[in-house]
Design the sequence.
């Protein structure tokens, strides 16, 4: 497999930066896992459609919700605004249910340590804040339940 746009190099830099910040980080082979008190944040380095390395930071906040126009509207409006600068997404599952996730994407070749740490913190913070509000309004299970 070809190292598209330095994906392996970016992944190693991300690992080092996360370890410097946290002391250690779980590497499951495809992504880095950062466990917080309320949320689990995933940091993945991969090639995008333009063959550049990107860093995708995301956290699933709620699991197993019923798909509804109200849920999608919430993600596009109120909840989406609360998640800024991150994106709030409704992810449809094969079983017809939905998960809600907060995400942010960075260009891998130019990311610096402060930007990476800030992005992980922002995603985790937005996910923690939104999880309870989403559950109260739409049901589903919290990630940490």
Sequence:
């Amino acid at each position: 497999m070809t190292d598209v746009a330095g994906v392996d190099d970016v992944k190693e830099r991300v690992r080092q930066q996360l370890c410097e910040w946290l002391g250690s980080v779980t590497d499951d082979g495809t992504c880095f896992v950062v466990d917080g008190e309320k949320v689990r944040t995933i940091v993945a380095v991969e090639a995008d459609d333009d063959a550049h390395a990107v860093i995708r930071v995301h956290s699933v906040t709620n699991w197993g919700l019923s798909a509804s126009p109200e849920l999608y509207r919430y993600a596009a409006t109120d909840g989406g605004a609360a998640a800024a600068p991150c994106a709030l997404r409704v992810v449809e599952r094969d079983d017809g249910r939905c998960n809600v996730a907060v995400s942010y994407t960075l260009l891998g070749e130019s990311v610096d340590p402060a930007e990476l740490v800030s992005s992980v913190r922002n995603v985790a913070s937005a996910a923690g804040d939104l999880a309870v509000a989403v559950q109260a309004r739409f049901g589903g299970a919290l990630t940490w339940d």
